[in-house]
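Help needed: design a sequence for this.
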């Protein structure tokens, strides 16, 4: 069929939706690397004009990745809710943008339409939006999930406490965990990326974290971010698994590159549900994504990296996760070259995930060879707080010494809450108050319970203190 537009006397033609979406995307190095990006700013603008006129219903008829060859496409189309789609089915992509930004379109209206939206629809509309539009629309939507803490309530900003260590030293992980807890971090999850990605090591880490949690009655959940098949094996061995983690992508081939498919994710989800470890809810999955994953696996099918990323959210929403986050700058400058591209991608991912009904968080981060710095990450973090992100990831001192990249610090999340008036998850906030760690205005202070907490962390790590 093709799509065309005449702009300033020049005619532009795009062969299919795949090409149209790619050419309409904001500039990013990954699409340029794949040969998908617009050849000029003029062509990019022309593609956006043409995209604005495409009916949303067209995305149900023209699959970007063939239905017969891809289980993610089949998941998207087979689970599409026509009744929910009815509210927006008459709209074009441009009309959908206008609908999202209307004052009359509130979070309830967007949530009602969400099961009828496909990833390609939300990726398409994001390409027509300025950064402020992405913030304005996303902040309307609240996606609330529960396990031992409640994540995603309006006026709240949770954090993942990420206490990684290059040798998985239990004392080092315990020290980083203590650092985060004393700075009010960890209400979304205490999540460790293991340096040694094997079942026995994962069990050791889980038992230490669970012992610490139980000793101090911390209303949160722990997670060792190992491969899903390792987590299944850990559950079979009786390990205290709260959340099942897995990185996912937007095509079947890219997920095979991660060593997973929908069947193994279903198996893990059912196993975690059967443990019934959640006290206030049963959202027990944790997914990570990131623009560029499908391209790096040579599994993008000619689809631009932001649209493929949005397709990963269809995988995630099939399992009612507690948490989903995009590691927005982690894959590197080959995919998001500089701070401008990282900022845009973070806002896009958060917006698309929220519209698809996901509890979205972001790892506001960059690698040391990217054209970005801590000031750029401050800017993105403030924008995401304004946009209503469910949670952000935080590490000691902004430097993940195991994964060797820069993220937010525990202090950064604390500062964001102070600046914006956002608060920790309610159960976690009550726990902090019970320890005497918050003053009358809910500001963090040196807690009377600090010594007891420190002693408990040291004991949980299985090592005696030095000196």
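Sure. Designed sequence:
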């Amino acid at each position: 069929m093709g799509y065309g537009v005449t702009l300033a006397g020049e005619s532009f033609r795009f062969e299919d939706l795949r090409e149209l979406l790619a050419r309409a995307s904001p500039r990013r190095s990954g699409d340029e690397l794949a040969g998908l990006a617009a050849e000029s700013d003029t062509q990019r603008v022309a593609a956006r004009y043409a995209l604005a006129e495409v009916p949303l219903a067209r995305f149900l008829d023209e699959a970007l990745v063939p239905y017969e060859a891809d289980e993610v496409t089949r998941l998207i189309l087979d689970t599409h809710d026509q009744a929910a789609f009815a509210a927006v089915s008459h709209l074009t992509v441009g009309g959908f943008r206008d609908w999202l930004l209307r004052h009359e379109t509130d979070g309830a209206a967007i949530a009602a339409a969400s099961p009828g939206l496909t990833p390609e629809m939300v990726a398409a509309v994001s390409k027509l939006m300025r950064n402020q539009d992405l913030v304005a629309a996303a902040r309307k939507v609240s996606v609330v999930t529960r396990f031992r803490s409640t994540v995603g309530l309006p006026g709240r900003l949770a954090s993942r406490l990420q206490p990684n260590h290059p040798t998985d030293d239990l004392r080092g992980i315990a020290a980083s965990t203590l650092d985060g807890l004393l700075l009010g971090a960890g209400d979304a999850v205490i999540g460790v990326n293991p340096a040694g990605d094997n079942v026995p090591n994962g069990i050791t880490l889980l038992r230490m974290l669970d012992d610490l949690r139980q000793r101090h009655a911390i209303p949160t959940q722990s997670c060792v971010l190992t491969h899903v098949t390792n987590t299944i094996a850990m559950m079979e061995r009786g390990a205290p698994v709260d959340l099942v983690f897995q990185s996912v992508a937007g095509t079947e081939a890219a997920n095979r590159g991660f060593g997973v498919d929908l069947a193994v994710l279903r198996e893990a989800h059912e196993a975690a549900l059967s443990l019934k470890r959640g006290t206030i809810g049963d959202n027990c999955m944790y997914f990570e994504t990131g623009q560029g994953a499908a391209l790096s696996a040579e599994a993008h099918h000619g689809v631009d990296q932001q649209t493929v990323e949005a397709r990963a959210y269809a995988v995630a929403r099939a399992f009612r996760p507690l948490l989903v986050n995009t590691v927005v700058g982690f894959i590197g400058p080959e995919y998001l070259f500089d701070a401008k591209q990282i900022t845009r991608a973070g806002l896009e991912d958060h917006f698309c995930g929220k519209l698809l009904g996901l509890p979205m968080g972001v790892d506001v981060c960059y690698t040391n060879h990217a054209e970005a710095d801590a000031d750029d990450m401050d800017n993105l973090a403030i924008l995401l707080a304004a946009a209503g992100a469910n949670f952000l990831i935080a590490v000691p001192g902004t430097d993940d010494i195991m994964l060797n990249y820069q993220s937010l610090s525990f202090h950064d999340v604390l500062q964001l809450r102070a600046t914006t008036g956002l608060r920790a998850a309610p159960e976690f906030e009550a726990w902090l108050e019970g320890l005497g760690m918050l003053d009358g205005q809910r500001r963090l202070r040196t807690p009377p319970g600090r010594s007891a907490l420190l002693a408990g962390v040291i004991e949980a790590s299985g090592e005696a203190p030095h000196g």
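The chain has a mean pLDDT of 95.
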